[in-house]
Design goal:
235 residues; alpha+beta; Nuclear Transport Factor 2, Chain: A; 3 domains; 4-stranded antiparallel β-sheet; 7 helices; 4 strands; 14% strand
Amino acid sequence: MKSLRRALKILGLVGCGALIGAVVCGMMWHKTMSSISSTALLEIAVDARLLQQGQADLVLERKASALPRLVQQLDSVDRRYLSEETYNITLWVVQRYYEECDTEVPAAIKPILDALPPEPPRICELKRQPQGKEPETPEPDVVPSKAAPEPQTSDLDKAVSIAIAKSADARKPGGEFKLIGAQQIFLDGKYVWRITFKPVRLLPDDPSTGEIGAGGEVFVNVDIKTEEAIVLYGE
């Protein structure tokens, strides 16, 4: 009987410890997220005030000067919590800023950006490509083993057809859906097509003035070589 009481006391202590630990972790998480939200709100307010005062150059300078520090933090701290796809997409955008603005990449983050795999072509680039024109030859420093395959219109059509068929059941509960995006992404060592659908009810009648409703997306990752497709859901 004494042994049973002792065991129950130990279980009670362990349970109380676990509960206290969960509460403390929850408080720390909320404290961290609140700090991040406060900093983001502060940044937005400062930038909005500067833009209102016609000081766009100062806003650009503030944003550009913060990039190296944020890239280093993403690579050294945050990377372990991100998927490879999210990590690459985030840094591709940073890389595109330096390339398109003809700005020299800071030495502190140049090795990080140089180590990225080549960014696959975006759907807007595919649409701008004239019919019958061969895709441009990649730059010499592109690693051949990871270079994106040359996008063909037939490949895109095939990917969309597979995505529509494979996601039919997933799209039924949300009513009518509309194709809003198609992009090649580097995932699990190969390039696949990501086809994105969104409920029509969340899309504005006039995209130039209306706001797009949040969530509801259905993503389909399509490997056109094997015709395999994985259906994912937005929040």
